[in-house]
Amino acid sequence: MLLVVLGVMASGPARADRLDEIRQRGELIAGVKVDYEPFGYRDAAGTTVGFDVDVAAGLAETLGVALHLVPVTSSNRLQKLTAGDVDVLVATLGDTVDRRRLVRMIEPGYYGGGASVLVPAGSPIHGWMETRGQTLCAVQGALWNRLAATRLLVDIRAFGNTRDAELALRDGRCAGWLYDEAALQHQMASGAWPGYRLLPADFVAPWAVAVAADDRLAGLFDEAVAGWLRDGRLLALEAKWRLPPSAYLGEASARWSARDDDGQWHCRRQADGKWPTDCRELNLIQAQELSGLVGLALALRDDFGIDLTAFYDAYNRGQFAWGLLVTIGLALAVVIGSVLVGIAGAGLIRRRLAVVTPLVHLALALMRMTPPLLQLYLVFFGIGGLLAAQGLSLNAFLAAAGVLSFYAGAANAVALAEAADTVGPGAGRLRRVARLAFPAVMGSCVNVVKATAMASAIAVPELVHVSTSIVADYGNGPVMMNILLLAYIAIVLAVVHGFTLVERRLQRR
After folding, report:
1. Residue 291: pLDDT over 70
2. I want to staple 228 with a disulfide (CB 3.0 to 4.6 A). Which of 146, 154, 233, 436 is the partner?
3. 207 neighbors 112 (Cβ within 8 angstroms)
């Protein structure tokens, strides 16, 4: 426990000035996306290109160094920056107050956009208010997930990448796909989505370059982006990559190109080193009022950089609590299900039926030998896709519970069958079989409880899924992983304790 606490306290983001290090190294390490055309993607030759890549190249040019690109995703980009894996992020990062608490967002923003929802042409959803209460597919770490959930009460089903979100929408697992407006417009323009349409954009916000600390590097990048808004470089990139005109970029370019009567730029550094207030996004520099604050959690965040957002933020606290309940429910379901599958499987093996028993042996072997994650994908996307074609939907929680129950149940069936073969006939035979097979069954059930984390791969909102979403928004990976570790330790200990009580009852009889 002491090591865990020390690890958490050491997880605060680094705040070193990196400009000298970058110049000595001779290259700028920039985190960019590779799955978000046309901002960052791999072309036919495998080269990473896009709007954001050009922006990153401009920043490297400003410093007079080479550019080294590192792929990032919406769910890990802030972690890579705060961990020091990259010097700068140019990865469609929406500028928010919460993110400014974690990293230094470059002002002004280099682009801007909002969210949209991709829906089937025949969908009854024609406006944002009609998404209220609907289930929308999304990508973990996207800024819009939280806004849609809190303001419109949308049920967000967040996947780890755009591919899975697209596949889930096509399979009818959600009413629409909530994502960045520019990306969805590009998808529509590509012709890959006939029979679908987009809602008008909402939640418009600037996108910002991000660095780890407020130092000389941040100041140089501030000036660089401001200069690009003035000389039209960003507008030229927008045209180069055939992006629809961004309302934010047009307004920002006009604002930062304006001059005072004396001919100087209106948006220029003041004596205190800051931009004029009317050149900044006021909603991002005003203090944010939070409800339900926990004094200790905030003190740890402000004084030590230990961001326990799952305890002080009402939305994340509710999400974490729900994730905990889902994980507990899934653990109970797979424990009970695997025991029942084990009993049924052992019974079929013991009957030694001419055709059935060999088939049961084959099925149990396949279940035991096939990785559970692969089984989840086969059932959820394979069988689920076939059902979707018939207008039916496969529940992700039930799919995960069923797959994991059969995976562990196969091992339980073998253990029970072998115990039954060992124990001779006589009074209390079932109890003796249970005693003999108990250690193997208990081990199998404990292991499958730990494997419930795999359910996050198909967007079951359990602890890992929720924690990953929080980390994607706040970048507090080490803190949330330690909280997740303690939660799983508690769940596993509870399961072990339950089995211990059962074992004691078996021993008393």
Report:
1. no
2. 233
3. yes
